[in-house]
Design the sequence.
């Protein structure tokens, strides 16, 4: 067996420079640690490219042609906006459209907050599925913001027992389950999402304490309460889903 | 706060690959490396927010967190990663995935296993000097040791590594 020289060994060691983390994991981690920074970076990059397009439109050209281009842009904006995802430049237009539609159909307040969160979770699922890793941090930021707003809305909209409406909680549970199933993302450490889990679990525990349960269900409820006390809200909700099924 | 985030964002971009590689070469799997690296940067960000003025060398600071995190990882698993050259148990990795197999050829895999059998301080200096291109003076500052000591550690580390590889 040929002896390995020091030079050969060092060359082999230097080949280990090729070891790098997965790009999507690194991007996701950064978005979890610095959510606002990632969102700002994405918006700035998109603003720069859009301004570039605008300045070429307004370069010295015939006025009629310029007006036609502007008209096309305006008509196209709302059409394209409906297909945008968090982080896209026209995404705020889509959000405004969603809010307007909600107002027209009478879905306001808490119901609208739940629907908005659900839309954002679906957006995250779509961008994760499409491999749009650049959009994931923005989608996560949107979910974080909506989760925070929803927690506040829930606290302001409690029923006679001091807890939010049961159907609303059920809708949120479905949304959180969808969020947990999005592959390649884990928002359970996100504080806003954690607060939402806490609110939901607290409400569900209160419901179950008043319900008629089998011995097995009662035992599971005790485990749920223990998990809640340990601030393990995600695990608590998973057990609650077992009781409710 | 925005300025702090921007600064740490730059630090993150500069060190994420290095810290991940540093950790990966010391543990058994990509999953564990990602988990530990996440904790390193999370703790790093928390410390950065609290005492930004005191962190003169962010890289050294992150490496220190990473070293401690790896030690904690092995302590929690009930074993230490400091092994002598003589007793060199095989560090099995039953969970090595297809992704890792695609990246690592047999030689590189053997080399990675051999590095894990070195004393921790030898692992550190070899990774920092040959993979992160850190000069011995910077390593010396990071470890709080004289540069001459670091050169000796590098020399002994390479020698031990060669012995481990040739024994296997």
Sequence:
């Amino acid at each position: 067996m040929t002896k390995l020289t020091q030079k050969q060994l060092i060359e082999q060691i230097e080949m280990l420079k090729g070891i790098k983390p997965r790009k999507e994991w690194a991007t996701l981690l950064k978005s979890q640690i610095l959510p606002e920074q990632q969102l700002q970076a994405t918006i700035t990059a998109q603003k720069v490219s859009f301004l570039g397009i605008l300045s070429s439109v307004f370069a010295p050209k015939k006025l009629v042609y310029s007006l036609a281009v502007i008209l096309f842009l305006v008509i196209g904006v709302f059409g394209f906006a409906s297909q945008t995802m968090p982080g896209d430049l026209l995404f705020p237009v889509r959000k405004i459209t969603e809010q307007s539609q909600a107002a027209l159909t009478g879905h306001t307040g808490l119901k609208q907050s739940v629907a908005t969160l659900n839309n954002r979770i679906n957006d995250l699922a779509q961008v994760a599925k499409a491999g749009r890793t650049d959009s994931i941090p923005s989608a996560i930021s949107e979910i974080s913001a909506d989760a925070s707003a929803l927690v506040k809305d829930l606290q302001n909209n409690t029923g006679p027992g001091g807890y939010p409406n049961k159907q609303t909680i059920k809708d949120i549970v479905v949304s959180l389950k969808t969020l947990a199933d999005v592959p390649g993302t884990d928002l359970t450490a996100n504080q806003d999402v954690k607060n939402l889990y806490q609110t939901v679990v607290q409400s569900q525990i209160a419901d179950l304490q008043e319900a008629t349960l089998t011995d097995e269900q009662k035992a599971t409820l005790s485990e749920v309460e223990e998990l809640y006390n340990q601030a393990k809200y995600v695990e608590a909700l998973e057990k609650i889903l077992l009781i409710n099924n | 706060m925005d300025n702090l985030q921007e600064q740490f964002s730059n630090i993150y971009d500069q060190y994420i690959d290095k810290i991940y590689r540093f950790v990966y070469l010391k543990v058994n799997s990509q999953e564990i490396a990602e988990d530990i690296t996440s904790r390193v940067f999370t703790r790093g960000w928390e410390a950065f927010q609290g005492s930004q003025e005191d962190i003169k060398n962010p890289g050294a600071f992150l490496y220190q967190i990473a070293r401690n995190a790896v030690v904690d990882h092995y302590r929690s698993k009930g074993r230490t990663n400091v092994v002598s050259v003589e007793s060199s148990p095989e560090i099995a990795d039953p969970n090595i995935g297809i992704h890792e197999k695609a990246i690592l050829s047999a030689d590189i895999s053997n080399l990675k296993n051999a590095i894990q059998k070195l004393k921790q301080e030898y692992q550190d200096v070899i990774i920092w000097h040959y993979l992160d291109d850190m000069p011995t003076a910077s390593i010396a500052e990071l470890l709080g040791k004289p540069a001459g000591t670091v050169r000796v550690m590098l020399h002994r580390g390479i020698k031990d590594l060669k012995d481990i590889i040739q024994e296997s």
Chain A has a mean pLDDT of 82. Residues 78 and 93 of chain A are 7 Å apart (CA to CA). Chain A is about 75% helix and 0% strand. The interface with chain B takes residues 1, 3-4, 6, 9-10, 12-22, 25-26, 29-30, 33-34, 36-38, 40-41 of chain A (CB under 8 Å).
